[in-house]
Design a protein that fits this description.
Layout (H helix, E strand, L loop, with lengths): L1 H6 L14 E2 L4 E2 L10 H8 L4 H22 L1 E2 L8 E3 L6 E3 L6 E2 L19 H4 L9 H16 L13 H7 L3 H7 L2 E2 L2 H10 L10 H5 L13 E2 L8
Antiparallel strand pairs: 1-2, 3-6, 4-5, 7-8
Length: 236
Amino acid sequence: MNLQIRERPHPNLLAIANDDIFESEIYRYVPLKYVRGGELFALLNKNGPFRADRARDIVSSVAKALMHLHEVIGYAHNDISLENILMEDDMRTPVVCDYGLAQKIGSKWDSNKHVSGKLPYQAPEIYSGTARVASPKADVFSLGVTMFVMLTGIPPFELPDPLHDMRYKYMQCGRMQELLKLWSLRISNEAVHLLTGMMFHNPDQRMTIGQVLDHAWFSTSSKTSTTTTTTTTAKS
């Protein structure tokens, strides 16, 4: 798939470097561009939650990269997380990497053979084994979790399972803002509305990546910063 990204590039998708691919008798070597800024996870751990305006810029760029991946290249990434988003030298430009779990959209998804994504980023249909085909909706869910951690410094839940994780159940009942208040966290109502739509349990009700980019949160001029009195460390 890296070859397809090189042929149809996007500035926020990691592609093969200009060097040639070469092979030995056993291995194929694929040179990738070096992204000097490192993982978004490390940046968040070092500096704590992002201001809303910075998080908005990064999430917007990643969403545009995923739209290109889904609609132009035709693949779902299946492992969107803070660890799989690198930052360029400017520390403002994100680059999606690690396509080891990527799969062609619409192709058969065998839950017995596929383990996709990291908890709690994993979409519920993948976690529960009910997914039947590779879908871009799984990436939307994972990006929602990523955005939540960027804004708060903590994961929204441990498991995408309403029977075994009460935080997840509360969020699926539209009570995210109540939980944030209990945790002494604050994010805007627009952000909560967007996150709720991105993390719907039922993928048929979940936002598409296009709907994410059209959301009012990306056009708001609010300068409200995320605050927390509990923790500023991201947890994988």
